[in-house]
Specification:
The structure is a homotetramer.
Chain A: E1 2-8, H1 23-39, H2 44-49, E2 52-53, E3 56-63, E4 72-82, E5 86-95, E6 101-110, E7 112-113, H3 124-130
Antiparallel strand pairs in A: 1-4, 2-7, 3-6, 4-5, 5-6
Chain lengths: 133, 133, 133, 133
Amino acid sequence: MSVKVEHRVHFYETDQMGVVHHANYFRWFELGRVEYLRAIGVTLVELINDNILFPITEIDAKFHAPARYDDLISIETTAVELTKVKLVFDYKISIVGDEKILVTGHSLNVFTDASSGKIIRVPEKYFERFRLI
Amino acid sequence: MSVKVEHRVHFYETDQMGVVHHANYFRWFELGRVEYLRAIGVTLVELINDNILFPITEIDAKFHAPARYDDLISIETTAVELTKVKLVFDYKISIVGDEKILVTGHSLNVFTDASSGKIIRVPEKYFERFRLI
Amino acid sequence: MSVKVEHRVHFYETDQMGVVHHANYFRWFELGRVEYLRAIGVTLVELINDNILFPITEIDAKFHAPARYDDLISIETTAVELTKVKLVFDYKISIVGDEKILVTGHSLNVFTDASSGKIIRVPEKYFERFRLI
Amino acid sequence: MSVKVEHRVHFYETDQMGVVHHANYFRWFELGRVEYLRAIGVTLVELINDNILFPITEIDAKFHAPARYDDLISIETTAVELTKVKLVFDYKISIVGDEKILVTGHSLNVFTDASSGKIIRVPEKYFERFRLI
């Protein structure tokens, strides 16, 4: 399954080269990940309340063309693998109405116990929702 | 008392106008505030461990001239009033070696209980250090 | 006239205190300002193409209560004064569906020539639109 | 050759999980890249004045352990390949005085003409300095 979310590029996301600073694409991947999880009924607030964190352990991006101020972009997030121990997502960022892909990315999150920091398996209730992908 | 701290302007702090985005000055005021408190022996970590937060309740800035990429700036923080219930600071930002003031600012923090969110008075041990200003 | 724009609070806008970092409110004021100007037919791109910049010269905020992760906030921007030489705006930030005001603010922008940096008057075509407030 | 630069973790670089938000590591890689180039006599300002941009086209990171507020971190940048058309760097982030690696990364920049956006070869004067690695 893929989930798309739109985002208007803000002035404060540009840099002196006149385009979006590349660190922002990682923030937008996060935005895509959050909306993907919301679409299958999982919110960060519920996870946090269950004392579960899900830190990023690996992420990468390829930048094909820059987004610019005031562009309305689409962040398309695809779940590659959602298991009891990890979340793997792919991302594609483009301008709404334009097929050209600006940025692609890939990330890996693991689940950890918020208190101990150790890697854990999420409870069954989450895994049921992960099967929805 | 005044405390000066230096900061090199990063590329990611600029925007499309070719100068520093104005929201960054508020981050630099924070940097100045932190170093001021460190100079009188108060760290955020100690406050947090004592279950004390110190949210900003008012802040303002006047922008006279922009800082630019790679400028080495000086953030001069002056305590106006440090009491058991609040911290009031003034800020002056300039380029190191240049008397011209780029930005001035003023802030008010109060102390709150991290659990209840209510305004509190800090314990005497902090207030002793506040008298050092 | 007032213009409202909504914004979902992102995880990357929070800090270790568990609430939105205060510097973000200045970014959201910018977002409000941009949408206000768009509502009266003025875009930053047109201004930039006309070699006009409009740097912030003064800004302030009062923080009454914090916004939190995933809050859907409303940024209400009111033009106080739009003239040939300056833009003055007031801001109110609240959670959508809740009357409580979290943050209020006020800003002053002036118009400058992008090449010389000198303060200028905007051309009549802009001022006509400013009268719409 | 490797170049190390130190950075104090700011409060505004943390997020609600109580650690540094991962997007910041990409900003710190940039900081490392800038200081590496400065060490071999290349500044972004000179490149920009020569109408040369050097956008990031690929970047990745692995996060082994989080940096925290007020940590003094070391960003170690190693040039893997500096040619007339591209810059390839590796990064290692650790806490000063601690051998444990928190984050590793890898990036690819290409040189482009600032006006046309096309990939170009940098002038010989830069390449001479690139040989210093």
